[in-house]
Amino acid sequence: MVHLGNDWDEVLAGEFDKEYYLRLREFLKKEYFSTQIYPSMYDIFNALKATPYSAVRAVILGQDPYHGPGQAHGMCFSVKKGVRTPPSLQNIFKELQADLGCVPPDHGYLMDWAEQGVLLLNTVLTVRAGRAGSHRGQGWEIFTDTVIGKLNERKQPIVFLLWGANAKSKQSLITNPAHLVLTAAHPSPLSAHNGFFGCRHFSRTNEFLESRGMEPIDWQIRQ
Description:
- This protein is α/β, with parallel strands linked by helices.
- Helix content is 32%, strand content 11%.
- The protein has helices spanning 8-11, 19-34, 46-50, 87-100, 111-114, 140-152, 165-168, 201-211, and strands spanning 37-38, 58-62, 118-122, 127-128, 159-163, 180-184.
- The protein has a 4-stranded parallel β-sheet with strand order 3-2-5-6.
- α7 (165-168) links the parallel β5 (159-163) and β6 (180-184).
């Protein structure tokens, strides 16, 4: 039913046959047929396709996808090249520059991070155009809780970056002491000054990974 093309297929074996997901699938069929939904149905699982389970070193948890035209492509906070960088991502780049001196790129495509093991996961994977939160409560939360739970089982350390109340609500799922959980305000212009700016999550992620004998993440976006 869903083919991810990497080890997530084995990790999530049987998940797409569960009753909640079959109900979600029927809901999505009707939604995609009747109205404008983001991202494209072919892009829904791009975060999992881009970052295999065994490769995950950090998780950035978003809420639901961008709901403007051409923005969402299945990876939280990311937009494809040629799309104006959204305000939340601009603030992420500002913090990154203040923390590590990374020069803000001229685009918002975060594939560089995904290919280094940064899973860019939203908690809800689809949304109606112009209606933030419109696909909440339909089953996506069960699915992404399962993804987080599977990552929690990993012996290899992972850093979970939880920004904002929605992401912080998932903290209870991360019980393995091997992992590091970092929390801060959401990078939205409405809340970034309440604790996102100055959180130094990018350098702290690398300090943790290196202390565990792992390669740091090169946070500078290039491609």
